[in-house]
Amino acid sequence: MYIDSQVVSNYEIDKEYGRVCLEAPEIAASALPGQFVMMKYWQGLTPFFMRPFSINSTDNKNGTIEILYKVVGEGTAILKKLQKADKVQILGPLGNSFPLKENFKRIAIIGRGVGAAPMRFLAEYARKKNVEAHVFISAARPEFLFDTTYFQTIECQFTGSCDDRRLVTSYFEEELTHTHFDAAYVCGSKRLIGDVKRLMDQYGFEGYASLEAHMACGVGACKGCTIVINEEGTERFARVCKEGPIFPVRNLVY
Amino acid sequence: MYIDSQVVSNYEIDKEYGRVCLEAPEIAASALPGQFVMMKYWQGLTPFFMRPFSINSTDNKNGTIEILYKVVGEGTAILKKLQKADKVQILGPLGNSFPLKENFKRIAIIGRGVGAAPMRFLAEYARKKNVEAHVFISAARPEFLFDTTYFQTIECQFTGSCDDRRLVTSYFEEELTHTHFDAAYVCGSKRLIGDVKRLMDQYGFEGYASLEAHMACGVGACKGCTIVINEEGTERFARVCKEGPIFPVRNLVY
Amino acid sequence: MYKTDLSVQISTLQMKNPVMPASGAYDYFEDNADVFPMCTLGAIMLKSVHRYPRPGNKPPRIAEVTGGMLNSIGIPSIGIEEFLNKGMLEHYKTLNVPVVISISGGSPVDYVEICKMLEGNPFIDAIELNLSCPNVGTGLQLASDEVLLGRTVQSVRTVTSFPLIAKLSPNVTDIRKTAKISEECGADAVTVANTYMGMKIDIQTKKPVLGNIMGGLSGPAIKPITLHMVYQAYSVLNIPIIACGGIMCASDAIEYILAGATAVQVGAGNFVNPMLMKEVIEGIDDYLAKNGCQSLSDIRGIANCRKN
Amino acid sequence: MYKTDLSVQISTLQMKNPVMPASGAYDYFEDNADVFPMCTLGAIMLKSVHRYPRPGNKPPRIAEVTGGMLNSIGIPSIGIEEFLNKGMLEHYKTLNVPVVISISGGSPVDYVEICKMLEGNPFIDAIELNLSCPNVGTGLQLASDEVLLGRTVQSVRTVTSFPLIAKLSPNVTDIRKTAKISEECGADAVTVANTYMGMKIDIQTKKPVLGNIMGGLSGPAIKPITLHMVYQAYSVLNIPIIACGGIMCASDAIEYILAGATAVQVGAGNFVNPMLMKEVIEGIDDYLAKNGCQSLSDIRGIANCRKN
Ligand SMILES: Cc1cc2nc3c(=O)[nH]c(=O)nc-3n(C[C@H](O)[C@H](O)[C@H](O)COP(=O)(O)OP(=O)(O)OC[C@H]3O[C@@H](n4cnc5c(N)ncnc54)[C@H](O)[C@@H]3O)c2cc1C
Ligand SMILES: Cc1cc2nc3c(=O)[nH]c(=O)nc-3n(C[C@H](O)[C@H](O)[C@H](O)COP(=O)(O)OP(=O)(O)OC[C@H]3O[C@@H](n4cnc5c(N)ncnc54)[C@H](O)[C@@H]3O)c2cc1C
Ligand SMILES: Cc1cc2nc3c(=O)[nH]c(=O)nc-3n(C[C@H](O)[C@H](O)[C@H](O)COP(=O)(O)O)c2cc1C
Ligand SMILES: Cc1cc2nc3c(=O)[nH]c(=O)nc-3n(C[C@H](O)[C@H](O)[C@H](O)COP(=O)(O)O)c2cc1C
Ligand code: FES
Ligand code: FES
Q: Where does FMN bind (chains C, D) (predicted)?
């Protein structure tokens, strides 16, 4: 879908972080956790590309979606300044989604900072299916542990950390020593994903990572957002926007 | 001067017109009527050029200048949206100014719509020197007869017209039949300036026009804003930003 | 449907309007934003199919720059043989719009081989020779070498009866020369032009941003340069010109037509606005109607004072 | 004054920092925005002085485009003779910064004549040959013709002992060739590059916007292309490169230096931000300091994997 949307609200979490709510009934109704949207919300031709953002949550009753964002450059700086009723073009929902297999009984959800943006939607989805979900989030400061209350409301086990000396995966590892997980879902740095891979090898569970790449089209046409993936020994290019943004951790090549 | 200024207020006159007041003490203190400023008030590189605007008025007490503007394209559309405290880079005051010779006792000031923007400053200047000033302004609608009250406050004779069938110069012509003018100052279309030229030939007074041209540098360096002028039979290029924006009507070539 | 006659003809290729995607910047099936029906388009232009299978270049493959983008996709392709075996062309034909296949190769012989394989194929309507991809191999561009260009077009001409469109490189000293050579060697039209060789350096890592070091610049940044090339080419050519470079709105397309273009291609603009091609078609129609014109030929090339 | 060593040398031209204006885009006396002292600059670059007096092209001479501008100024000039008679050079020398005079002409012999007149002049430090203005005459660009380019540089070389900088045209198929020819014919440095031929059409009037029909494109739109040319030229040259094209901030200048440039010129950027050159100088200094570098030679060309 490509819709002319508008800002319902744009809540400032901090100088750098915000949460924008957008009118998008059809997207709210059809999106799956892990999917993203491409958005253009400025006049003129700079920035050039639309910007990709994960869907943080959907609200079917109000016909809205929410995006959690961090200001890192020109495009996100403009996003921060949007006000109620400002116009936004949205293309989406795009990409694949977090696979939640029938046999999964207990999953881990791992993220850092704004990397946790797609995780709320995933947790909601898992809980609806009655899957047990342990959420592990780290951030630089407590206010950047987004959606904490929500995770608790829907009865996820929640571990939040602002300890810079510990990787968030270390909390997960502690759990793994005594609890079996069927799968882990991670969104964050290469380092984080690498550490999940190590734990997968050690403890045996499935791992899925949400990746980012610079995108032009967002729909698979331009072949611009490729990464290298390894499928059973064979390396090939895969488009993050189309085959992803969610990839099995075991297929990732760094 | 090149200053980091900010918006003091941005008053909407209409969908298309506005008046912005900017903090610029040094410019307010040194500007002469007819001079202009180049302004940049957006992030990024589109629009590319700074935009030129005449100084509508200066306020030395508050250290501000006012710009009267009309939305015609991308750059002026952004100007319309500026809010209090928004940042503006200003280069100026630039260009020459309206010559008001010692022997001028009675002058006419003629403009149409936003073309009248520099005229308030001129009228103020003339009245301070005790020169009699008749102001002739036309506009599409009464609310676009800007500064009407001000012109009357400083005791200019004021003729405003919203009659589309009559060129504003026709009111001036009526006056000319019984009153001598030493000079006329005009800002507006080629047609308007052309008509002032005709009246100059017929009634004998000096005429000065404020011109516009696309500008890159605004300071005379790029030679981009040239027009052809005729000085005693010799045609040459003159830069609107530097030799102008005020030119003797008799030198203009159309 | 339209207020005016938007149809154009390029040799035997009949288009109901002059707008088609630029090769490689649009997909028609699952990789499409799906915001308007494909039959809206004047023609279907395919992503270049290479003679042999190619994986494409190593990532990062795109970078944003002021007024556009760099790409070093490098034509990932399954190769013409598999492409034909898979029945891809039949698939495109179901869209009920004339199909133009774009082909690429490393040497003139590659193009000849592909055209031989395509000869008589009922599912295509024209062939565009991508002679100008800056991202294949060491940056050799057939269309930047007058001798190779002429040789390629000429030898392809002898083996194909399809309308032949030579897509020229803008990385040349004088587009008039390469355009004229294309015409003389039998091209039915030229596409002016492809991307400009460019690059971006990351001052933090101190390395080129693109995995392939350099890439092709496209988007509005290049429009003034390509527009001038279309204008120049029009002054020397008797065959139609398809303009391609930086079209972001109907007005850009109209500028190209006023400069002499018969048709236009939209590339990077599709990414920024998935609705763009539809808007361009409607915008041209509105413009013609507002200007009291019946058809595109009323405005084609009229900004061009150099046409003799 | 600086935290690091920003000095660069181009033959005998000593600059305290690598930043100078691009010819024609900056003035030093009454036509200056006067926002920082002229002695801030690494060098004073003059607007091209033509062999003979020229009025320049008919207006409109500039147009805004996405990410830049078109200009068809056409080098208005009082001609070298009057320029010298008027004592202009003495005037520039009072700024206490090395002075580079840019010269232009319609044919190689014009350049030779000017250089003869300049020989031994105590008020200049180097000569830049503007071989690439798209706005003189019928668009003939000496630097787009390999034979004429070589002949011009070579014949000028025999009559001048000043450091000779050949300003190359980007409107060429391969900048490496024209750069190498310049070096071989005796240039002490090359400036890469000038503006790109471009145009804009007004769809209301249906005519080209510029009085001269076409003009030169400059500004950030061209930066990726010119950056790639600097990168390419660096891989074949042994003489210094002065980069020129679309510098709008310190980071742009640093990209050029990482690609291999010794010095940089700022053109259209001065219009958009009169403070720009000062900001670029300070920004380069900061960057070097932050990256633990002592001098520009620590970073020059290090993004360039092609240098052999
Ligand atoms: C599938 C996907 C989902 C995303 N979800 C979110 C989200 O929910 N919330 C959020 O805040 N951000 C998200 N991002 C990242 C977001 O798209 C970028 O931060 C944004 O595009 C940066 O734009 P900018 O103009 O502010 O920064 P720029 O000035 O373009 O860049 C600033 C920095 O960010 C990097 N960057 C820019 N674009 C991308 C990109 N597409 N992917 C990775 N790095 C990039 C640049 O290399 C640079 O280092 C997502 C990205 C993808 C691909
Ligand atoms: C010395 C001077 C003083 C001026 N004073 C005022 C003023 O007090 N108030 C005011 O509202 N406007 C004034 N203008 C005009 C103002 O600068 C333009 O309207 C503005 O730059 C248009 O910018 P834009 O991006 O909105 O329009 P664009 O999209 O750039 O252009 C829209 C239309 O305006 C024309 N235009 C753009 N720039 C100029 C220009 N510099 N001169 C003439 N036409 C132009 C274009 O050709 C086009 O037709 C002045 C211009 C000059 C040269
Ligand atoms: C992502 C991308 C992929 C491209 N792939 C091809 C291609 O396969 N074959 C080709 O001839 N041109 C290719 N091009 C060039 C475009 O067809 C077009 O000529 C160029 O982008 C200029 O047009 P634009 O400015 O509208 O993008 C590609 C361009 C982009 C941006
Ligand atoms: C208004 C203007 C005038 C110019 N005049 C000259 C000139 O006289 N001689 C010359 O060699 N280049 C001239 N140029 C080209 C610039 O020196 C420079 O090479 C070009 O603009 C690219 O740099 P930029 O992108 O930083 O503007 C001119 C450019 C502009 C914009
Ligand atoms: S962004 Fe175009 S293929 Fe992924
Ligand atoms: S705008 Fe540069 S000389 Fe007038």
A: 23, 47-48, 130, 167, 219, 245-246
Which residue, A224, A254, A228, A237, is CA-closest to C53? Answer: A237
Chain B residues closer than 8 Å to D27 by CB:
219-221
Catalytic residue status for D133: yes
Residue in this structure with the two tokens 């020169």, named with its chain if needed = B131
Pocket test for ligand 1, best of A50, A76, A96, A187 (most atoms within 8 A of CB): A76
Tell me, what CATH number does B37's domain have?
2.40.30.10
Tell me: do B116 and B206 sit in the same domain: yes
Contact assessment for residue C9 and residue A203, using Cβ atoms and an 8 Å cutoff: no
Q: Cα angle vertex D278, ends D277, D281, to 5°?
A: 85
For residue D102, what are the CA distances in angstroms to B82, C243, D23, D77, D86?
42, 36, 7, 12, 17
Contacts within 8 Å (CB) and 24+ apart, C290-297: C293/C4, C294/C4, C294/C5, C295/C4, C295/C5, C295/C6, C295/C7, C296/C5, C296/C6, C296/C7, C296/C8, C296/C18, C296/C257, C296/C262
Residue whose structure tokens are 């040094």: B26
Domain housing C268: 8-58+75-196+217-298
With contact defined as beta carbons under 8 Å apart, do D192 and D233 qualify? yes
- Find the catalytic residue in C133, C244, C249, C305: C133
Residue A93 C-beta-side C-alpha neighbours within 13 Å = 28
Q: For residue A184, what are the β-bridge partners?
A: A108, A207
Which chains sit next to D, with 3 or more Cβ pairs under 8 A?
A: A, B, C
A225: containing domain: 214-254
Q: Classify strands B36-40 and B51-54 as parallel, antiparallel or unpaired.
A: antiparallel
Same domain, B195 and B128: yes
Q: Which contiguous run of DSSP H or E holds residue A239? A: strand A234-239
User: Average pLDDT for consecutive 10-residue bins of chain B (254 residues)?
Assistant: 97 93 97 98 95 97 97 96 96 97 95 92 95 94 89 91 90 94 93 94 96 97 97 95 97 88
Q: Which of A62, A107, A63, A79 is nearest to A18 (CA)?
A: A79
Position A142, amino acid = P
Q: What is the pLDDT of residue D308?
A: 43
Does D202 fall in a domain?
A: no
Q: What share of chain D is helix, strand, coil (3-state, %, to 5)?
A: 30, 20, 45
Dihedral pair phi/psi, residue B222, rounded to 5° = -90, -15
8 Å CB contact between A51 and A77: no
Instruction: Return the residue in A41, A87, A219 with the most chain C beta carbons within 10 A, the one to mutate for interface testing.
Output: A219
- Residues of chain C with Cβ-Cβ distance to A92 below 8 Å are none
Over residues D234-283, the pLDDT tens digits come to 999 999 999 999 999 999 999 999 999 999 999 999 999 999 999 999 99
Note whether B202 and B254 are same-domain residues.
no
Indicate if A61 and A125 belong to the same structural domain: no
pLDDT in tens, C25-70: 999 999 999 999 999 999 999 999 999 999 999 999 999 999 999 9
Instruction: Supply the DSSP symbol for B250.
Output: G
How far apart, in whole angstroms, are the C-alpha atoms of residue A123 and residue A117?
11
- Inter-chain touch A220–C27, beta carbons under 8 Å: yes
Is the distance from the beta carbon of residue D151 to the nearest atom of ligand 4 less than 6 Å? no
Q: Residue D276 maps to which CATH number?
A: 3.20.20.70
D198 to chain C, any CB pair closer than 8 A? The answer is yes
User: Please, which residues bridge with residue B108 across strands?
Assistant: B134, B184
pTM score above 0.90: yes
CA–CA separation, D109 and B184 (whole Å): 52
Contact C3, C289 (CB under 8 A): yes
- Minimum CA–CA partner of B48 in chain A: A46
